[in-house]
Design goal:
Elements lengths: L2 H14 L1 H10 L5 H15 L7 H15 L2 H10 L6 H15 L1 H16 L6
Helix pairs in contact: 1-2, 1-3, 4-5, 4-6, 5-7, 6-7
């Protein structure tokens, strides 16, 4: 593996947690193993590891994009992962932007997920 992969794996674990990354890694099969390596190296090793955005900003952008695109499983995962960086007021602000720029239905669904995530106890995440 490359330094970028190692950096990506470290960042992926930092943001998503060991349990999630271990599940994703152990679930990989021949059909998607290369994809898992690709996202670790490029999404996490490049984009999530650069220093141009703060973790708060990066989480906000990711949540807004996932909500706007309707990628609900990834949205819930990233909302949970954002808890160290985004407080409830910031998350609400991000989702209000989604309502204006991507539509009320997208924000409505995202707010339902946000309620679920913010009402969980830390042990549940």
């Amino acid at each position: 593996m490359t330094d970028r992969f190692d950096r990506g794996m470290a960042r992926r674990r930092e943001v998503l947690g060991d349990a999630h990354v271990d599940r994703a890694s152990s679930a990989a099969r021949d059909i998607d193993r290369g994809f898992q390596e690709f996202i670790t190296e490029y999404a996490w090793g490049e984009v999530w590891s650069d220093t141009d955005l703060t973790p708060t900003m990066r989480s906000a952008v990711t949540i807004a994009l996932l909500a706007a695109a309707g990628h609900l499983e990834e949205l819930e995962m990233h909302m949970r992962a954002s808890r160290p960086w985004l407080d409830d007021a910031q998350l609400r602000g991000v989702l209000m932007h989604v309502a204006i720029y991507a539509g009320v239905p997208a924000a409505n669904t995202a707010f339902k997920i946000a309620r679920k995530v913010t009402e969980e106890s830390p042990e549940e995440t």
